[in-house]
């Protein structure tokens, strides 16, 4: 098995840059087994960054132009927090679409995660993401449909999701995408298409740690209390045990009624009592094992620079 180099284009918000890199790095190591896999970080222009994030990126990442010169076997591209109503109005849009076009012809495979999946599908097939009736946040079960390269052995998998928008299955299938996993409750999880590079699109977050959804939920509650969001968030679905789920619903009612004097303390007590097992770790490892195997199985040297 020859060594593989994976380019990691990290577009996450400042506070999540390092943790997201660590999550994908751990998942790749677990999936690689005895194969030598290197993860090399790159940055995309067009995003506002704070001083601490700029220092972190400057010390550990290269600009994406270096990727175009150097090449890689495959890439993983993360999403970011949207600021514009339409993705083409984001300042990074021309840089991201150039990356999509480059990856089609200069990599063996690519993973587009969360908002990056929405952006790539829009650029490739003009499929607009659609707002969900409510935030899709929680741990969901998905039926495995297309298993050609993913080598799924189970009939269903578990994947965390955290998103406000989604891509309609019918539109994806109409434009040649193949659905890897889907559920009636949360919609499409993973889909893919040959570009000819094997493009894999993830609306969920198999890379999440056991407590990532908890941290996001706590962050959103604090945003509500600070007046930075209009509604008190719902707790992640299928995550909390019965008593803790009831406690969170009661806390929400007290906060909305103005009857809770210490909402952060009460929230911390409840979520601190919830075990954070990474139930989806095996399914996530299996997905990335299939992806790495598909990369390694392709003949020739695929590290093609621009």
TrEMBL record:
Catalytic activity: L-homoserine + succinyl-CoA = O-succinyl-L-homoserine + CoA
SUPFAM superfamilies in alphabetical order: Class I glutamine amidotransferase-like
Predominant subcellular localization, coarse grouping: cytoplasm
Site (Important for substrate specificity): 162
Homology family: Belongs to the MetA family.
PANTHER family associated with the record: HOMOSERINE O-SUCCINYLTRANSFERASE
Name of the protein this chain belongs to: Homoserine O-succinyltransferase
Organism of origin: Methylocystis echinoides
Gene: metAS
